[in-house]
Specification:
17 helices, rod-shaped, 5-stranded mixed beta sheet, 59% helix, single chain, 4-stranded antiparallel beta sheet, alpha+beta
Length: 535
């Protein structure tokens, strides 16, 4: 129950408006993002707890020690006072009640005066319970003593010997309460019999001394409490300077500046951290430099090979055209060879063209010649150009372009993208229809090519734009693909600031969505995936 209440109390505080306002302040924000500040606060809190526990222990030990010392002194003094009072009572010659009464009052006054130096503030003389003496006198007591002498104390005194009890003395004029010790014993009065004698000692002076000592300790610890967080923060801030420098350097390295280094001083863990960071950035820089050189060599190799192959390929192409033009004069077996030579030569030319285009993108030398064009005429030209392939595959291509979809585009590149998507859809349609949908918005234009053929899994869709990736090697080979068409299409769309997406399901077909901004480089919106579904 207590833990539940404590949790509810903490939750009430943390959800309150002042707590939320405090958490949103700039100071709290800086503390939350500063390891030095958090450690300084944690160490200060721990030090405060230690000081508090130490203070409580010291105060308790001081009070206990002071009380025990004072109690022993009071008991010793009370024993002397009791003996002296009993001697006075025993030597008294009083016979009448008035004489005994006066003798008792005088003895108590003398006792009170003599014990004042030991801290006694009051005395009382009470008739012992069960006393059978024939002579009776009035009890000597006041309101203060009447409230302090308890039945338990009287019962203990009746048992014999000096008894003591800790009491709280309340001042008569104020509500101030001070500690004290009440000591009592039995005495014998002449002819009046057994009575109880009580002496009240005040510990107010001793309590004042303890309070002074504790106040001095508190005032002494105050500078420590104030200086500790400042000193700890300054020390930690200085010790964590290499960490901050390393964080700053790591941020610059993450932004691409691998020339950044951390100054290293000393041989401690912080210096080891700086040396490790410098070694890491040096290794990364060397590795990236080697990769850049390899990439440049690879790009140069592809470009050089592509250019070098064009000359012999041109010669082969010229010879192939002569053979192709005269294929009817060749024997039947040679005519088949001429057809293979013609097809493979065209494929080689297409592959070289694709390799050259890829090398331009790799070398960042591709240029965008953008002018405003409507996508609909481009789609129409592509469909007309693919009519023979569609007829051969038994596929009907349907164009759904109800409105004008104009954007600033490089017509040659976008036509190549659409041709790649349409040819790919026809090849994989398995005799079903291929639908080309053109749509526009305030900021973008989009073209979706959708078939209902073999489809593809999500894994294929994730890699379909990779270079030389073929999900179905046999199909790609029979239709003469190079494995670079969709990779080039991705680069063509990206240079416009657009996006090319693929989606499919096995047995339900595939959908390729090209989204282009109306102005190259502008942000493009995310088209709803309903473009995948048939509308």
């Amino acid at each position: 129950m207590r833990s539940h209440r404590a949790a509810r109390f903490v939750r009430t505080i943390t959800t309150s408006r002042p707590w939320k306002s405090l958490r949103s302040t700039q100071l709290v924000h800086r503390i939350r993002h500063s390891l030095s500040a958090k450690l300084a606060l944690a160490i200060t809190a721990a030090a405060l707890v230690i000081l508090l526990v130490f203070g409580v222990i010291v105060a308790s030990q001081l009070r206990t020690s002071m009380f025990e010392t004072r109690r022993d002194a009071i008991l010793a003094d009370a024993s002397l006072r009791f003996s002296s009072a009993q001697s006075v009572f025993s030597s008294s010659t009083a016979t009448s009640p008035d004489q005994v009464q006066e003798s008792a009052r005088g003895a108590l006054a003398s006792l009170k005066a003599s014990a004042a130096g030991a801290g006694a503030t009051n005395v009382a003389l009470l008739r012992a319970e069960g006393s059978t003496a024939s002579l009776r006198i009035n009890q000597v007591e006041d309101e203060q003593m009447r409230g302090l002498i308890t039945p338990q104390m009287r019962e203990a005194v009746a048992g014999g010997g000096a008894q003591w009890q800790s009491v709280a003395i309340r001042a008569s004029t104020t509500d101030k309460v001070s500690p004290g010790i009440l000591v009592g014993t039995q005495v014998q009065l002449p002819r009046a019999g057994a009575h109880e004698l009580y002496i009240l000692y005040s510990l107010e002076a001793d309590q004042s001394q303890v309070d002074v000592v504790l106040r001095v300790l508190a005032l002494t610890s105050l500078p420590i409490i104030l200086a500790l967080p400042i000193g700890v923060f300054a020390l930690l801030h200085r010790l964590l300077l290499p960490v901050r420098l390393t964080v700053h350097a790591a941020t610059k390295a993450a932004e691409g500046d691998l020339d950044v280094r951390v100054e290293v001083h000393g041989a401690d863990e912080m210096a080891a951290l700086g040396r490790a960071f410098n070694a890491m950035t040096s290794s990364l820089q060397d590795t990236i430099t080697r990769y850049d050189e390899l990439a440049k060599l690879q790009q140069r190799f592809v470009s050089d090979v592509s250019h070098e192959l064009r000359t012999p390929l041109t010669t082969i192409r010229m010879a192939e055209e002569i053979v192709w033009d005269n294929r009817d004069d060749l024997p039947a077996h040679a005519r088949r060879s001429a057809e293979l030579l013609h097809d493979q030569t065209e494929r080689m030319e297409q592959m070289l063209a694709d390799l050259l285009e890829i090398s331009r993108y790799d070398a960042a030398s591709a240029l965008l010649d953008a002018e405003e064009h409507d996508l609909r005429p481009i789609v129409t030209r592509v469909v007309e150009g693919c009519a023979e392939l569609a007829q051969r595959q038994g596929v009907a291509v349907i164009i759904d372009a109800p409105s004008r979809a104009a954007a600033e585009i490089d017509e040659r590149r976008i036509e190549r993208v659409i041709r790649n998507l349409v040819v790919n859809a026809i090849e994989h349609a398995d005799g079903t229809d291929v639908t080309i949908t053109v749509a526009t918005s305030d900021t973008d234009v989009a073209c979706r090519v959708r078939d209902r053929g073999v489809g593809m899994t999500q894994e294929v869709a994730d890699h379909v734009f990779d270079r030389f990736y073929r999900a179905d090697t046999a199909r790609a080979r029979t239709t003469g693909g190079t494995g670079l068409g969709l990779a080039i299409a991705t680069e063509d769309v990206a240079i416009h600031g657009g996006r090319l997406q693929a989606y499919g399901e096995p047995g339900k077909g595939a959908s390729f969505l090209m989204t282009l901004p109306k102005h190259p480089g502008d942000e493009i919106a995310t088209w709803p995936l309903t473009l995948w579904e048939d509308e």
